[in-house]
Design goal:
This protein is α/β, with parallel strands linked by helices and about 200 residues long. It has a single domain (about 5-170), classed as Vaccinia Virus protein VP39 (Rossmann fold), CATH 3.40.50. It is about 30% helix and about 15% strand.
Length: about 200
């Protein structure tokens, strides 16, 4: 899918796979309550953060909960925001004043004067991946089905110990596990036959 089609589609609902959330977890240990402002109960952010001991508050526009009108009590804010509102989201996050980590398409994120000014004034941190993140287009999807033509990274403030951190992500963990299990089964079967 081309960037202009993503930007102009009017659809900002792309769902994050768990493998893109796991590298962020070590940096979230000091925070107890995390607000996921663009998420529902089905979100992998909500599930993964809850499973790792955080109290999670989640809100979503589909429930009438507008991020730009809310201010939840929390220690940090984590999510994958709507692409078409990234400037407004970043400005609002700095206005709220809590540590945050937003998974965003990295192309052009620093090429807006408004975002440039916000980052220069407030500071910015980046958690950059070795691979592109593939997204789900629905919660029901079993496999990621959106391969964007851009890299994603966490744009952060008050989360990372350095201005830039690098993380390796592993896609298709389940597939690799099943291939390994099949290989082990084949070896065991071969050993039985030849014994």
């Amino acid at each position: 899918m081309k960037m202009d089609k993503v930007a102009g589609s009017g659809n900002d609902e792309f769902y994050t796979p768990e493998y893109a959330i796991l590298p962020l977890l070590p940096y979230l240990k000091p925070f107890n309550v995390i607000w996921c402002p663009f998420d529902t109960r089905q979100s992998n952010f909500v599930k993964c953060l809850t499973d790792n001991g955080h109290k999670v508050i989640y809100t979503h526009i589909s429930n009438g909960e507008n991020f730009f009108m809310l201010n939840k009590e929390c220690d940090a804010i984590v999510s994958n925001p709507p692409y078409s509102f990234k400037t407004e989201v970043i400005e609002r996050l700095f206005q709220i004043g809590k540590p945050f980590a937003m998974l965003m398409g990295i192309v052009g994120v620093f090429e807006s004067q408004r975002r440039f000014n916000a980052f220069r004034t407030n500071g910015v941190e980046v958690l950059y991946f070795n691979k592109r993140v593939s997204y789900y287009t629905s919660y029901e999807a079993k496999e990621t089905d959106l391969e964007p033509p851009f890299s994603s990274a966490y744009i952060c403030h008050g989360i990372l110990p350095k201005q830039i951190e690098f993380a390796e992500i592993t896609k298709d963990v389940k597939k690799k596990r099943s291939i390994k299990n099949v290989s082990q089964s084949m070896i065991s079967l071969f050993d039985e036959v030849t014994a």
